[in-house]
Design a protein that fits this description.
Blueprint lengths: L7 E5 L4 H12 L3 E6 L2 H8 L5 E5 L5 H15 L4 E4 L18 H28 L3 E6 L12 H21 L4 E8 L5 H5 L3 H7 L11 H12 L10 E4 L21
Parallel strand pairs: 1-2, 1-4, 2-3, 4-5, 5-6, 6-7
Helix pairs in contact: 1-8, 3-4, 4-5
Length: 263
Amino acid sequence: MGRLDGKVAIVTGAGSGIGEATARLMASEGAAVVVADLNRAEAERVAGELDTGMAVEVDVADEESVAHMVKTAVESFGGLDVLHNNATDSSLNAVDTDIVTLDMAVFDRLVAVNLKGQFLGCKHAIPSMLARGGGSIVNTASIDAFVGRGVRAAYGASKAGVVLLTKSVASQYGTRGIRCNTVAPGLTLTPGAVDNASSEYIGASLQNYPMPRLCAPEDVAQAVLFLASDEAAYVNAATLMVDGGATVYMSSARRGGEGNTGA
């Protein structure tokens, strides 16, 4: 028996990376999965390999598009039980550097996709979940929501907003049977991350994680599955860090304290 038997799930950004891994895992656990992505071809590729899946092209920054996504799920599978708000725009990371010189169009785009997109997902999914007597929403934030990095201020601010959005949804709708939680991954070896990072960067990143390897999309998908399932029936408004302990770790400790002269 699967952990999501009889459930209907939407996963946004499901054409690759964390979203794809989550869609595949949810389907293997019995869910009918709407594979939603801006890239229709990739959504169709993933959906076509699931036992019960369908592809929907969606721009999460556009309310009409999000409403259509939810309507399609309900009309196709009879309802909605799970939403994984995962779609993220990370294509602008290279220019999200200095606050003073940042083009505000970059800020607006990151907020539109990373924060507004998840808000819209909640807004349109909640009524359908209420009609089923409840449901589970899992949002994707980032460790950038919790620590300053010297760069990516706009991205981090958008992801910090996701954490508060999660708490707001949980507090407003928890008594009506809808749980809302967040996963906060660190560096995850998605195809996009691997394609845009040098081997030197990947190697150096290991110094920041007290683990023998970096995070795989499947690691995050397992956390999402737990929060979406009845195993997390009393988990609400929580943020599950999927960062290998990076946010509480000083990398000098891994090298035996070399160069550590105190705080």
